[in-house]
Design a protein that fits this description.
Order of helices and strands: EHEEHHEHEHEHEHEHEHH
Largest sheet: 6 strands, parallel
CATH architecture of the largest domain: 3-Layer(aba) Sandwich
Number of helices: 10
Number of strands: 9
CATH topology of the largest domain: Rossmann fold
Strand order of the largest sheet: 6-5-4-7-8-9
Mean pLDDT: 92
Shape: globular
Length: 272
């Protein structure tokens, strides 16, 4: 049996070439003939959550629908990574009683990158809280993003508070998971690191541009709070993330930093 969760032309062909007697895939024009069992794919702009969309292929085998309360996304904390991260942030100035805010400021494509100036305003505002440290991270696809945000955020703070915005270098996926476990809040766009954060119990402030929370919100129990920030009323949203029709990435750029600050403070207060 072959189950094609991807559904693209190459994946469909590989499923067919596998020689599996049963091949399960989405009912898409031009490729459905390669499958022995075809599952309808929603045609609406938003559709269902991506987990449920994928799980529909398992429904063809009689497997019950997914439940984020019982079956959340999981990623275990690596003990060695946790020790290494703990030592690194301690050297950077994080005390055991400090409240840590992790802000991930990059994404794999420009459609999901909130402006650096907006991230800097949020970082500087949250760093003013007593006993707080803000750790800014970025991925290898945008390695300088964290440095730009850190520098801009520190300039917005009194000199005595600039040490509250920390530069801790790049984190591997395992280290990022360990870092989030130590955090009181995670802030970031709809990208891989946000879904790594969703495997923890940390509150999340997620920024949605061309994507929508109905499709890609954190898949975990509702008891662990999240805030979804988005710009409503845009005819171009959601999009295929190949070309920005207005040309200004307004689906992200129009999210007001003050909205992110307010949502963050609410979640931090609730966690306390």
């Amino acid at each position: 049996m072959a189950i094609d969760f991807h559904g693209g032309p190459r994946a469909s062909m590989l499923a067919w070439l596998s020689g599996a007697r049963e091949r399960i895939g989405y009912d898409v024009p031009g490729r459905s003939w390669m499958y022995t069992r075809r599952v309808p794919r929603p045609r609406t702009p938003v559709g269902d959550h991506s987990v449920r969309n994928q799980w529909a292929l398992l429904g063809a085998l009689g497997i019950a629908s997914p439940d984020p309360e019982r079956f959340p996304v999981e990623m275990a904390v690596d003990e060695q990574a946790a020790v290494a991260v703990g030592a690194r942030i301690a050297r950077a100035g994080v005390d055991p009683d400090d409240s840590v805010v992790v802000i991930h400021v990059s994404a794999g494509n420009p459609f999901r990158r909130w402006p650096a100036a907006a991230f800097a305003r949020v970082a500087s505002a949250l760093a003013r809280g007593e006993g707080r440290r803000v750790i800014v991270t970025s991925g290898p696809s945008d390695g300088d993003a964290a440095s730009r945000v850190i520098e801009a955020a520190r300039l917005q703070l009194p000199e005595a508070d600039r040490h509250r915005v920390l530069a801790c270098g790049e984190f591997s996926l395992a280290e990022l998971r360990a870092l989030v476990e130590r955090a009181s809040l995670y802030i970031g766009g709809d990208s891989g690191p946000m879904h790594i954060a969703s495997t923890s119990h940390v509150p999340i402030v997620a920024l949605y541009g061309p994507t929508q929370p109905e499709r890609s919100a954190p898949w975990r129990a509702a008891i662990w709070p999240s805030a979804a920030l988005e710009v409503d009323g845009l005819a171009c949203r959601p999009c295929d993330q190949r070309r920005c029709e207005p040309g200004d990435f307004r689906c992200l750029a129009w999210i007001d930093p003050q909205q992110v600050i307010d949502a963050s403070e609410r979640l931090l207060t609730g966690r306390q």
